Amino acid sequence: MDELYIHLRIREVIAETQDAFTYRLETIDGQPLAYQAGQFITFLIYLHGTEYRRSYSFSSTPGIDPYPSVTIREKQNGEISRHILHHWKAGDQVTALLPSGRFTLSGHTTSPRDIFLLGAGSGITPLFSLLKEILHNEPTAHIKLIYSNTSTERTIFHRHLQELVQQFPRQLHIIHLFSNDPDQIVRRLSNLSLEPLVQQQLRYQAADARFFVCGPPEYMRMILLTLTYMGFGEEQLHKENFVVNTAPQLARIGTPEDSSMKNVELHLRGGVHKLSIPGNHNILGEALAQGIAIPYSCKGGVCGSCTARCTTGKVWMALNEVLTDKEIEQGFVLTCTGYAISAEVVIEI
Ligand code: FES
């Protein structure tokens, strides 16, 4: 395993639905892969002479599932997902960045609390990983999985979820919402249906509840706005983004006007790099242009692969769909949309 990249072999490919497949992975060097439930891995894919990077959440749970796995649906991430689904097979070797992401539990508690997992379609992937983690390691938590799909046949992990309900009947309650089912009263989540649903399902103190949400952007926006309106605090709400193209948004926002040179020190595990960067060039772009390999995937402020910590000076982010206000206060920044706005900046990666 070198600094930034890991080399993996596909052990097995498992069909979950007609268009979603799980890829079980193992490291080439036989070392265990360190990751947390809810995190993602970014694959480097070479297609038509170009390197693409795409991030996929783990559907497996460390300590519970024997092999790290990702589950990919055909439409997710467009052409690259299609390429993976049509070409990757057992025995193939793939390269990836080290696992990352903060859609994770920050520790367990022995006090009873409600944990809501809300997912739509392939948004189940990181939630499935978290679900197993909580069931096995936090027996006092009561989990509500609210899972939206078009139909049972399109529901990834449907059978596994039924098995988990049987295995953990006191800890887990699943509400399936099928948009194609004419017999269901609530077929899609809306602000009107979500509020009473959450109120009905709360067993313990509302202030102790946690919510993990993963799905299309408008689905997550509606849920987070509704929960915020209901009085849940930012620290109770966790979201994992589907990566969307933010290039038009970034073009509208533009870059800082200040083009004066800034001294930026990048502290990587491999050492310290001292760069001189114009104030209107983003940190990731300049680092890559100067031959310094730092992690990234979407380059659009959405995936969080490029998260780093600014320990000296100030960085302005043109777009941030990942970091919370608290994380920003703690100095976390995205290098892909981050610009140095003070003369001296130190970034730890
Ligand atoms: S590379 Fe995705 S947020 Fe920066």
TrEMBL record:
Domain 2Fe-2S ferredoxin-type residues, every copy: 262-349
Matching InterPro entries: 2Fe-2S_ferredoxin-like_sf (IPR036010), 2Fe-2S_ferredoxin-type (IPR001041), 2Fe2S_fd_BS (IPR006058), Beta-grasp_dom_sf (IPR012675), Cbr1-like_FAD-bd_dom (IPR008333), FAD-bd_FR_type (IPR017927), Flavoprot_Pyr_Nucl_cyt_Rdtase (IPR001709), FNR_nucleotide-bd (IPR039261)
Entry GO MF terms: 2 iron, 2 sulfur cluster binding; flavin adenine dinucleotide binding; metal ion binding; oxidoreductase activity
One matching Pfam family: FAD_binding_6
Keyword tags: 2Fe-2S, FAD, Flavoprotein, Iron, Iron-sulfur, Metal-binding, Oxidoreductase
FAD-binding FR-type domain location: 3-106
Protein name: Ring-1,2-phenylacetyl-CoA epoxidase subunit PaaE
Cofactor(s) annotated in UniProt: FAD
Keyword Transferase recorded: no
